[in-house]
Design a protein that fits this description.
Blueprint lengths: L6 E4 L9 H16 L3 E6 L11 H11 L9 E2 L4 H13 L3 E4 L3 H6 L19 E4 L7 E6 L3 E6 H4 L3 E4 L7 H11 L4 E5 L6 H11 L5 E5 L1 E3 L20 H11 L13 H11 L10 E3 L5
The structure holds zinc ion.
């Protein structure tokens, strides 16, 4: 692969400011493609308005800039991409790969995460019904090699069932939107948290259905609190303290097992990043689903 074709991305949801875990993901994906001479894009995944916090997008973008993580091209906001998601959904329907599901939320919840495909195939009107992707043999058995987590195999029929690509409230699903946008932005390298490892086979399956190119995946450990919870707004993870960007970057590099010398803490953010790009080695990252954040974060 020629270096100008390498494209990575950081794709936060605007549900709150960056914390140590999300900064580490942004930094890792940035260093991974910059080390290869590739492009780094930022995409704001703002297609779930009920979960969004006003002002979070601009806060995240200014935090990235404060940490020297400058992106290429314009930021892509998923809220501007609804026509593209609809277009892909229409293609799936035209190929009889999608159907409407009239199951109640209560019924779906009672199935504990594995849909039993009861509504397959149906010709219900599209209003007020979720749309599910109909899984077909043999491609539903997805296998891929994650650059950090290793070989991953999932039978979508056994572990997930036909899954929702547009919700009952008419919002497009995360799985569909992320798949369409990774293709649209020519993303070749996806590096993100291990909480999305189990979503990856669904995205690979959608890529297959839509004739898209499969990027290379690498799933980082998720940073956890001392109580073992994923750092998130829900676990009351604190936002990064502004004014200590150098310490934040150094601590994230250390957490990513890149062995940054202590002296780096006296350098500027851009000097640390220059060091980190040339010394980046993703094979040093611990192969683990979770890892405690350092003390103080
Ligand atoms: Zn149903």
């Amino acid at each position: 692969m020629s270096t100008e074709k390498i494209v990575g991305r950081f794709a936060p949801s605007p549900t709150g400011p960056l914390h140590f875990g999300s900064l580490s993901c942004a930094l890792a994906s940035y260093l991974d493609v910059r080390n290869l001479g590739g492009k780094w894009l930022v995409r704001i995944e703002d297609i779930d308005p009920p979960r969004e916090i006003k002002g979070a997008s601009s806060r995240i973008l200014s935090q990235l800039e404060d940490h020297g993580l400058y992106w290429d091209d314009k930021v892509l906001f998923q809220s501007t991409r609804l026509d593209a998601y609809q277009n892909s959904l229409d293609i799936l329907k035209q190929h009889n790969l999608a159907y409407h599901c009239e199951c109640s939320r209560q019924r779906v919840n009672s199935l504990e995460g594995i849909y039993d495909n009861r509504c397959r195939p149906s010709h219900l009107p599209s209003t007020n019904n979720a749309t599910r992707l109909q899984l077909n043999q043999p491609h539903q058995l997805v296998e891929f090699v994650d650059k950090i987590a290793g070989r991953h195999v999932q039978s979508l029929i056994e572990d997930v069932g036909d899954f929702v690509i547009r919700r009952r409230d008419n919002l497009f699903s995360y799985q569909l939107a992320v798949t369409v946008d990774d293709q649209y932005q020519n993303v070749t390298h996806v590096m993100r948290g291990s909480d999305l490892l189990d979503s990856t086979p669904r995205q690979i399956y959608l890529q297959h259905c839509l004739g898209f190119t499969q990027p290379q995946y690498a799933h980082l450990p998720v940073a956890t609190s001392p109580l073992g919870q994923k750092l998130s707004k829900q676990s009351l993870a604190s936002s990064l303290i502004s004014g200590q960007e150098t310490l934040n970057i150094w601590s994230a590099l250390n957490w990513l097992n890149q062995s940054p010398p202590n002296d780096l803490q006296k350098w500027s953010v851009s000097e640390i990043l220059t060091w980190a790009i040339s010394h980046w080695d993703s094979s040093n990252i611990k192969r683990s689903l979770t890892m405690p954040a350092p003390e103080g974060f």
